[in-house]
TrEMBL record:
Residues 1-22 form the signal peptide. This is Zinc carboxypeptidase. CDD domains: A4_beta-galactosidase_middle_domain. Belongs to the peptidase M14 family. The keyword Signal applies. PROSITE patterns: PEPTIDASE_M14 (PS52035). Residues 807-843 are annotated as: Disordered. It comes from Saltatorellus ferox. PANTHER family: PROTEASE FAMILY M14 CARBOXYPEPTIDASE A,B (PTHR11705), SLL0236 PROTEIN (PTHR11705:SF143). The active site is at E370 (proton donor/acceptor). One of its GO terms (biological process) is proteolysis.
């Protein structure tokens, strides 16, 4: 900035006058009309964009009940309330209203309290024990006669579960909870009083307090005196936002597995008083309006038959309310009913009416939509309240019929002759007690009945997780049996069926949408099941009818076994994933730890111990005095079973404990890339696994930070999806670091970026970059398969005719829409009755076409290399020593890696590839025989590439061990 010479004296004179005045009267200087006084920034809606319409027009309230706005100091919804403020206002209403009771049901990772507010009439509160007992009979109609259960619909109030803000940055939902509770707690309106006689409302005001506080902090820290109406402004949040919990888990996808403590606490609370209405309030893009159910296609086949009827009725009533306000809204456009892991899906599968709200969000401040309309924060809060009150009133009016349909759904689930059938899910306990325990916790925590077989039994019509089928199969005593015919039977089948298929009508629409350039309409994964996700040995069988005992949570041995003081060495079973945490903690405490590359038998205090490859060994002579205390501490903190062994001599002809089959590990020093453009949920799953399961210290490295980060501080660097451009900018430094001995782990799209030829980090290649070389890659894949089918032809070897077919030709690509193995399309067009056919497209065009059909989320078959160190402890052993093992793995997107070296996991051929989910033939052709996991040496280091996340949604325990091995064992496997 510059000033003209004539202006300078005026500035100088003004400055002198201000200084002179301040010297004479300091107080006057503070009140100068030239310098305006500082005032605190106003958060939330500004004065020009206030929403002043009352939430409840003309309502009158009991003055004895605390008005939350008296505590808040301004209209609720005009700014973001903190979680602490929300709890304070709710507690004040509970203390002054006989309609309200507040209960705590848990804590978040960051220590914030999780609460529910129960609102109903005083008379219902007085008989709540009776209401709970009757609810138990409705939940399990086996407990009373049909006459008794059916008679409950008249006098038993319905239960409405209303949950707000499971995504923390969808803030209007939790904001709406407070005035909604006040209206129910204090309104003198006859309709409210009558509704609370017929309904018990269990309201969870803030499902994700940690995420809410994260986004609230961001919004307040970036606020200014001027309102910013831009929907994309950083003032509305930045990476990682507030969607997830502390570890950034999307808890709206966690209802099947229950990896988050918030979810598990919620299950328990719901089972105390199971609902018949289940409201799940969310937000969507601020440029959108308001969506509520009924749902779009496709639909899960185990949902209640009358669900669409009731959703349509509730929607019609809500629509009339929205019409009166002149608000925009819609139904059925994109929120489908397929995936059973959502909040409302859980409610619906248990027999309730699941209702989703999606309000266009503003995140605590006014926002301008594309039409020019300005939407205040308080108006979005009003939308949530209006939908909630309308649905609640409709539920109350139709309570008897809704309870009748609820009981009918639960009876159908218990009927062995229904579509749920006479089947049961059987799980054979494994040596990995952690995985088994998590699986049982997920089922038992949701009220799913599990039995434990008292004796061995023979099951009929057995279907395995990898497609195996047997007429009969023997199962051992202790097998867990989950009958499909039980009150929670819809959850059992929706969660555990191996392959839930889409109907032909929807598939035709989906195919047309893709082929016409409109993209997929699939909203989430199409392949899932808890058995394969947790990696348990699960089978569908005919219900065996054997003697069994109700199963409880798995309690397994842990800690040191034997006399630590006299042990020659200590070993931990590598098939138990707790052993990884033990080894990590022992190294952190300074111990020298080895890992085995073969099975071995050690001599323990109670006899010979059979231990698999991947087991961990600590030798006394390599460690300093006090190693016993380290072993004990590491065993206690990890929960692992650690055996003291008496000698280094093998108990059989296998490896002795002092030989070369035990590789010395290096303590992992781990760095994890974070910040944009990293995928926040994939980052969260990795971070959670490292911190909670593996128990290794991890440094979060800012992907946008200083390029001079000293990589030499770390020997493991993890790059989740989304980091391709960042790694490209730093490739020279990364190449040097890996060559110097570092282990670089890349996942998903980042693995695809590293597979580019100019990265200098990998010999893998993206399929799209090697289309002219696919025959060679196919030949390698076939030779790998043949390597496990060795047969010596003595005639050809020592004389006679030579078999020229020394290799099987790679599978031909299929044309678009053709099934794999079908006759290939001609190389050029040929005429027919319709006229000339189109010429075969160029390879690049064909591959681009096929990429459109990349799956949203499926389960695929992969074959493990049994000799690769990274596959130790994964799955069961093959039928024969050194035989490959098939493994179910998650896959999504179009990252297809063509490996130059034998992959640790290679995806199966096209005919065997799909295990579950929608996988179009075009995608099958692209993905078949590609690599899911590779380990490539580079200098003295290595690059480990995962085509998809091995810790997807935190529940893929069947593949997370691979990631744990990469982090913990990897540094010891470099030169």
């Amino acid at each position: 900035m510059s000033f003209s010479p004539s202006f300078l004296p005026a500035i100088a004179g003004l400055s002198f006058a201000i200084v002179a005045q301040a010297a004479a009267n300091p107080a006057a200087a503070c009140q100068s009309p030239v310098l305006r006084p500082m005032v605190p920034i106003r958060f939330g809606d500004d004065a020009a964009n206030e929403w002043t319409t009352p939430f409840f027009e003309g309502a009158e309230y009991d003055p004895a009940v605390t008005d939350p706005e008296e505590l808040f100091g301004q209209p609720i919804g005009s700014r973001l309330a903190s979680h602490a403020e929300i709890l304070t206002m709710l507690r004040a209403m509970a203390a002054t209203s006989d309609r309200v009771k507040l209960s705590s049901y848990g804590r978040t990772f960051e220590g914030r309290e999780l609460v529910t507010v129960t609102i109903t009439s005083p008379a219902n509160h007085a008989r709540m024990d009776e209401i709970r007992e009757n609810a138990r009979l409705l939940f399990d109609p086996r407990l009373a006669s049909a006459e008794v259960v059916d008679g409950l619909a008249e006098g038993q109030p319905g239960v409405a579960w209303m949950g707000y803000g499971i995504h923390g940055d969808e803030t209007s939902a939790s904001e709406a909870a407070v005035p909604f509770v006040y209206h129910l707690a204090a309104s003198t309106d006859d309709s409210v009083v009558a509704a609370l006689e017929r309904v018990v409302v269990v309201l969870d005001p803030c499902l994700n307090p940690d995420g809410r506080e994260r986004i609230r902090s961001m919004v307040e820290q970036s606020a200014g005196y001027r309102a910013n109406l831009d929907d994309g402004a950083m003032q509305r949040g930045r990476w990682p936002g507030g969607r997830g919990n502390h570890y950034l888990f999307d808890m709206n996808r966690d209802w099947m597995a229950g990896e988050a403590p918030e979810t598990r606490g919620r299950w328990a609370r719901l089972l105390e008083l199971p609902p018949q209405l289940f409201v799940d309030a969310h937000e969507m893009s601020g440029l959108d309006t308001f969506l509520f159910y009924p749902q779009a296609s496709p639909r899960n086949g185990y949902l209640p038959e009358r669900l669409n009827h009731w959703q349509s009725l509730l929607a019609a009533d809500a629509a009339r309310v929205f019409d009166a306000f002149g608000w925009g809204y819609y139904t059925r456009e994109w929120a489908d009913a397929l995936y059973p892991g959502y909040s409302d899906a859980w409610g619906s599968l248990t027999g309730a009416i699941g209702m989703l709200y999606e309000q266009g969000r503003t995140i605590g401040a006014p926002l301008q939509r594309e039409s020019g309309e300005i939407v205040s924060y308080r108006e979005t809060v009003h939308g949530q309240i209006a939908a909630s009150l309308s649905n609640l009133m409709t539920f109350a009016q139709n309570k008897e019929a809704i309870l009748g349909d609820y009981v009918a759904h639960r009876r159908l689930a218990m009927d062995p002759e229904s579509k749920l059938g006479r089947r049961a899910f059987a799980v054979v306990p494994s040596r990995d007690v952690t995985r088994d325990a998590r699986f049982l916790r997920a089922l038992l925590g949701q009220g799913i009945e599990v039995q434990r077989a008292d004796a061995a039994f023979e099951a009929k019509y057995v279907e395995g997780a990898l497609g195996e089928r047997d007429d009969t199969l023997e199962f051992p005593a202790g097998t867990w049996i989950v009958p499909a015919a039980q009150p929670q039977g819809a959850l059992v089948r929706a969660y555990l069926d191996f392959d839930q298929r889409l109907d032909e009508e929807f598939l035709a629409k989906e195919r047309a949408s893709i082929e016409r350039g409109q993209g997929s309409k699939i909203y989430d994964v199409t392949g899932w099941d808890l058995g394969r996700q947790f990696g348990v040995q699960g089978f569908w069988i005919d219900a065996p009818g054997v003697a069994a005992t109700a199963a409880g949570p798995l309690v397994a041995p842990s800690g040191p076994v034997g006399d630590l003081a006299s042990a020659y060495a200590w070993v931990a079973d590598g098939d138990d994933s707790r052993s990884l945490a033990f080894a990590a903690r022992a190294m952190e405490l300074g111990a020298q730890v080895h890992v085995s590359d073969e099975d071995f038998r050690a001599r323990g205090g109670s006899g010979a111990l059979a231990l698999p490859r991947g087991s961990f060994l600590l030798r006394r002579h390599e460690n300093e005095a006090g190693i016993e205390a380290i072993v004990a501490q590491a065993a206690q903190e990890s929960g692992a079973v650690v055996h003291g062994v008496s000698t280094g001599r093998s108990a059989d002809e296998g490896p002795d404990l002092g030989g070369g089959h035990f590789q010395l590990l290096r303590r992992p020093r781990v760095a994890l890339f974070s910040n944009t453009p990293v995928s926040r949920t994939d980052f969260g799953h990795v971070w959670s696994y490292l911190d909670q399961d593996l128990g290794v210290p991890v440094t979060l490295v800012d992907a946008q930070g200083d390029r001079r980060v000293d990589l030499d501080r770390y020997n493991v660097l993890i790059a989740p999806p989304g980091l391709g451009s960042i790694l490209a900018e730093r490739k020279d430094a990364l190449v040097d670091w890996v060559r110097g001995g570092g282990t670089l782990i890349v996942i998903g799209s980042t693995a695809a970026a590293v597979a580019k030829e100019d990265s200098g980090l990998s010999e893998n290649r993206r399929r799209r970059d090697v289309l002219e070389e696919l025959d060679g890659y196919g030949w390698r894949a076939e030779r790998e398969r043949k390597a496990y089918e060795i047969a010596i032809d003595m005639v050809n070897l020592y004389g006679g005719a030579v078999d020229a077919a020394d290799a099987t030709a790679p599978q031909q690509d299929s044309a678009p829409g053709q099934a794999p193995g079908a006759a290939p399309a001609p190389e050029s067009g040929t005429p027919d009755a319709e006229g000339p056919k189109a010429a075969s497209p160029a390879a690049e065009t064909l591959d681009e076409w096929r990429r459109q059909f990349s799956p949203e989320g499926v389960i695929l078959r992969a074959r493990m290399d049994p000799a690769a160190w990274i596959t130790a402890g994964v799955g069961a052993h093959g039928d024969e020593e050194d035989q490959p093992l098939d493994l179910a793995v998650p896959f999504a997107g179009h990252t297809v890696l063509m490996p130059a070296v034998r992959p640790a996991l290679r995806l199966a051929s096209a005919s065997e590839l799909r295990l579950a989910g929608l996988l179009w033939p075009e995608a099958r052709v692209r993905i078949a025989d590609s690599a899911w996991l590779t380990v490539e040496p580079l200098g003295r280091g290595q690059v480990i590439s995962f085509a998809a996340s091995p810790v997807f949604r935190g529940s893929w325990r069947g593949t997370s061990r691979l990631f744990g091995n990469a982090v913990l064992i990897g540094p010891g496997m470099t030169d």
